Amino acid sequence: MSSNDLLMTLVVVTALSFDFTNGFHDTGNAMATSIATGALPPRIAVALSGVLNLVGAFLSFSVAATIASGLVQSHLVTPTVVFAGLVGGILWNLATWFFGIPSSSSHALIGGVIGSTLAAAGGHAVLWHGVVSKVILPAVLSPVIAGMIAALGTYMVYRLTQSVADGVRSRGFRIGQIGSASMVSLAHGTNDAQKTMGVITLALIANGSLAAGHKAPAWVIVSCALAISLGTYVGGWRVIRALGKGLVQIESPQGMAAESASAATILLSSNFGYSLSTTHVATGSILGSGVGKRGAEVRWGVAGRMATAWVLTLPAAGVGGALAYEAAHGIGGTAGVAVIFVALVACALGFYLNSRRTPVTAGNVNDEWTGSVVPTPTPVGAAA
Amino acid sequence: MNSWINLTALWKIVVVGLLAGAGLPALFAIGLRALSPARIAGSEQTQGGQSSGINPVGVTAAAVCFAVVLAAIGWGIYSIVSHS
I want to staple A172 with a disulfide (CB 3.0 to 4.6 A). Which of A134, A182, A297, B32 is the partner? Predict the structure, then answer.
């Protein structure tokens, strides 16, 4: 195996690892409300979501729009830049998962790639206008829009079913919840698996293995679909708990309204070419479902902590990406990438072992919320 | 429309989003309500085959509601396959 083969192997493995973290970080977006209301048993919910993510990843093949196009000058991107960006994204995803914060995997990836590009080529390599109009503005608007839709939906649903007996209503809406959560899972597979496919394709083009403007090869599509689906099935129980129990005490009619609002917002926006953060939309919807129900308690403090983490995601992943690039570049060549890769594996192991001390699993995910499971976020690497 | 934000897309997302995202659950709620008088409130036996209490108008209305919801889901999947 030549040095270049090893480099590309490490890049691809890191990209698939990112895809895996993306899966388990985002299981909650689709399934948190269904798990919280008992519409689906936790294990069944993550399995269903995993399968639908797999199917979703194969539904659409328009991978032409890679995550980086319009955000960075793609001719300045090298495989090492892509690798370092992925490292920044993975570290932030692991840190936020550890603290049970539903932050955006897409932003972690974008932030990481922007950071490593900045470190490698300087400010002119980043298309700031694209970053603001394609990433930041949609990120600010989408949770508000989804929240509004969910609030109105929740309000109407409760008004319309006032005369229906409680038991019948809960059972009926649980069925509706399963349907709407499935749509969110499907949309997630389509949107997020494609982002990693785009990144691997970008690295292949940067390496010269693939002609510019080429679509993702079949092995890239299949492996990305499997990685995100497997990650989803493993289930990020900490994030699921924060979304399902932490924000709002959720009932099945609220759950259905929230997931319908999420599915509608994500699908419509991707129709217009905006690849939104599923996480921001889902969180906005769940908050909205709390606002729309009279007398429901909304824990704005928890929501505020999540919003803080959202603001930090781009810069923090960017710093991670930039540092990873500087370190890999400083050591130089394939050896540098290999050293950072080993360091990344060590960090990931550290997060995993630490999480075992205070485990959140399918068994305790629905326990009463006491407010202490999710501490305030700390910078990347602090717990590693 | 300016270069920072596509206002046409924004208002379409809001309006269609409200129709689909809030309208469909509302329709589902109407369907549920149309079915429910046939059931005995508080009774656990909702599986019972005795359909003597079922109101045909309610059942028809519910069927229409649920059919529209299913059609919208089909349209959603179609939109994933053809775009995104």
Answer: B32
Pairwise CB contact (< 8 Å): B4 & A133: yes
Listed in sequence order, the residues at least 6 apart from A256 whose beta carbon sits closer than 8 Å to its beta carbon are A157, A173, A176, A177, A180, B25, B28
Q: Is A278 on the interface with B (CB under 8 A)?
A: no
Between positions 315 and 354 of A, the ones with CB within 8 A of B are: none
Q: Supply the mean pLDDT for chain A.
A: 87
Contact (CB<8Å) B79/A141: no
**Residues 6 or more apart in contact with residue A211 via CB below 8 angstroms:** A205
pLDDT digits (tens, 9 = 90+) for A97-123: 988 888 999 899 999 999 999 999 988
* ipTM exceeding the 0.90 mark: no
Residues in B closer than 8 angstroms to A176, CB to CB, are 25, 28
In angstroms, the separation between the Cα of residue A257 and the nearest Cα of chain B is 6
pLDDT of residue A63: 46
**How buried is residue B58: exposed, middle or buried, by Cβ count under 10 Å (0-12/13-18/19+)?**
middle
What sign has the CA pseudo-torsion A2, A344, A358, A300? negative
CA distance B30 to chain A (A): 6
Residue B34: list chain A partners with CB under 8 A: none
pLDDT tens digits, one per residue of A227-254: 999 999 988 888 898 888 888 888 999 9
> Which tens digits make up the pLDDT trace of A316-349?
999 999 999 999 999 988 888 899 999 999 999 9
Phi-psi category of A213—alpha, beta or left, where left has phi over 0 and alpha has psi -120 to 50?
A: left
Q: Which residue has the tokens 């309204």?
A: A257
Which chain B residue has the Cα nearest residue A195?
A: B84
Q: Find the CB nearest A153 among B4, B22, B84.
A: B22
List the beta bridge partners of residue A298: A248
Q: Which residues of B touch A187 (CB under 8 A)?
A: 80
